[in-house]
Design goal:
CheY-like_superfamily; four-stranded antiparallel β-sheet; Sig_transdc_resp-reg_C-effctor; alpha/beta; two-component regulatory system; single chain; DNA-binding
Amino acid sequence: MAETAHLLVVDDDARLRDLLQRFLTEQGFRVTAVADAAAARRSISAMMFDLLVLDVMMPGESGLALAESLRREGNEVPILMLTARGAPEDRIAGFEHGVDDYLPKPFDPRELALRIRTILRRAAQAPTVQPLANAPVQLGHRWFDIERAELRGPDGVVRLTGGEASLLQALARRVGEVLSREEIGTALGTPEAGERAIDVQVTRLRRKVEADPREPRFIQTIRHRGYVLRPGP
């Protein structure tokens, strides 16, 4: 698993970022590298990663703040922090923010690769908790009843069209799995629907589910693959 894992490296130091990307690629990993938390968020919304390598000190949002935000959103992707601050209290702060490991700078790249493989191996061995079949799915302050195809929030039932309800049902029945546009079309009973039609339906549903449809938390696009539902508070 580690040999084909997709890593996201986030570091504002261009020289170190390029060195890490080149070294980790040589180690057999697939590597995407970006300079800051904002770019990291865009990458995470577009692709699936097996592990994040985050620098703590970055302009704007810090690595710790990004890690904490991802955990709060329900994203459990493994995270390894890189930092020039290696005091015990700094490492403790990292673990409190939900990171999996903490490597002080300067470091030997071989140790980084070893730690990455260890984290990935541990993640692969961890038991996964499957949601109860047809249990209500939390989408922020709303809940979706799969059996009734009913989205309910603090102000009552949110009106969904038949197509929107069927789309949300299809995603909710396979939480965490990427559904291709073809699979979604089949679930909607319109297997002949083109990709554009599916994208339009997703866009409409996001307007009723997401706080900011332009930065979706729950219905995420997986580039070149389809869509996935990631519930959370």
